[in-house]
Amino acid sequence: MNPNRRHLLLGASAGMVAGAFARSALAAPRTLPQDADTASLRPGEPGADYQPVITPNGTALPFRIVDGHKVFHLIAGDVEHEFAPGLRAHCYGFNGRVHGPTIEAVEGDRVRIYVTNRLSVPTSIHWHGLVLPNGMDGVGGLTQRPIGPGETFLYQFPLRQHGTYMYHSHHDEMAQMAMGLMGLFVIHPRVPAEPPPERDYAYLLSEWKIAVGARRPDPNEMMDFNVLTLNARTAPGTEHLLARVGERVRLRIGNLSAMSHHPIHLHGHNFHITATDGGIVPPGARWPEVTALVPTGSTRDFEFTANEPGDWPLHCHMTHHVMTQMGHGLPILEGTDPSLFDEALERAVPAYAAMGSGMGHGMGDMSTMPGMPAMPGMPNSGAAQAATPTALVPPNQLAMVGTRGPFGFITMGGMFTVLKVRHSLPEGQAVGWYEHPKGTVATRARTMDLERDGIDL
Ligand SMILES: [Cu+2]
């Protein structure tokens, strides 16, 4: 439709402001003018005006509507957070969660967000990517005085844009963000320029340093982060994603890691980046990818059609970001004779000999070896757990890599989850591992195949 005609139609049906939305949606960046008449719009309601996003392992922040305003309340405080079964730490969060709940609203909504500080230190909350009055930007010392312990501040502004944004502490940033003070802020379009996807998932990436056995993240760490998270969970504690074959899927991915950019990789599909927190990427400017970098301090909206059934990894492609609490001080083990290590360990730890030993040549094998202090726990790995003498397991730590999969051990942990694409997804039923059609799984080559293709072993 020609933009002018679209403008006229919308203007006649929903007021001139809606016309401005439609026009703004066709160009990037799109932002309502400062004097837009948002008061004439009713607050957007979930279900009626937008399909809520799913925040895996997370939740949405409740709101109420008062005098045409959408009212939210964030409460910053100490939270005992579980990163995955076996690893907990004392963090900072909002409303009892790490990270905070996802704020969800509609372009044109006028929001009032109360922020209560129940921490023992001053804080301030910045609305990352939002275009708003300067005094609402939440930068401690620059645009407001910090929110003291026990105080409640009110932020209020109209939402003049739509997309995937974030909120985070902007006071003593290094310490408070390292402790978890952040969340997602999703704004749906008032008049979508493109059909919304069937599945709309939202992720916030972050990174932590939690020394083995420690009870608090270490905010002073600058390089050696050892807990890499999707929505503050690390694999195997990350929920899996679901999609039916043929469905359009959006992955909103924000990154508020202290020091890292994350190249996020999806198997089995290709996708386009349709938007950043700076605006919509015009359709003609998008290109296909299978991995896209999400720099720290930014968001990217990935969109694709789930057209390949299976269990597909979604993970950061930095190999040390799909590990947890890795020991970087290990000697080089590749190419070594593990029997020497076994003998030494058996002398030092008699229980190890009793279990049977067998040092492998890489992390994958090490992860399944019971009794290695760096790799106990292994949730979902019942046999190995049962064989691990608890005296050898320091409390509160995770396996360095992975969890049990349908074919053995999956040697990825950290920033890793699985997209399960199925032809049918019965409501309310757990979705197990993919059942591969006969003959479609790689297996040991048969002699007849080797002979047919002239492979000489
Ligand atoms: Cu990464």
Notes on the protein architecture:
The chain is of the alpha+beta class. It has two domains: 38-193, Immunoglobulin-like (Sandwich), CATH 2.60.40; 196-457, Immunoglobulin-like, CATH 2.60.40.420. 14% of the residues lie in helices and 30% in strands. The protein has eight helices and 23 strands. Strands 10, 11, 13, 15, 16, 17 and 19 form a seven-stranded mixed sheet that branches. Strands 1, 2, 3, 5 and 7 form a five-stranded mixed sheet that branches. The longest helix has 12 residues, at 3-14. The radius of gyration is 25 Å and the shape is globular. The protein starts with a helix and ends in a 5-residue tail after the last helix. Copper (II) ion binds at residues 228, 260, 262, 316, 318, 321, 415.
Topology, pairings included?
Blueprint: H1 3-14, H2 16-25, E1 64-66, E2 69-84, E3 87-94, E4 103-106, E5 110-117, E6 125-128, E7 152-158, E8 163-169, H3 173-178, E9 182-188, E10 199-208, E11 227-230, E12 241-244, E13 247-255, E14 262-266, E15 271-276, E16 279-280, E17 288-289, E18 291-294, E19 298-306, E20 310-316, H4 338-348, H5 350-355, H6 363-368, H7 382-387, E21 403-405, E22 408-410, E23 416-422, H8 447-452
Parallel strand pairs: 2-5, 4-9, 10-13, 12-23
Antiparallel strand pairs: 1-2, 2-3, 5-7, 6-8, 8-9, 10-11, 13-19, 14-18, 14-20, 15-16, 15-17, 15-19, 20-23, 21-22
Helix pairs in contact: 1-2
The structure holds copper (II) ion.
Copper (II) ion is lined by residues 228, 260, 262, 316, 318, 321, 415.
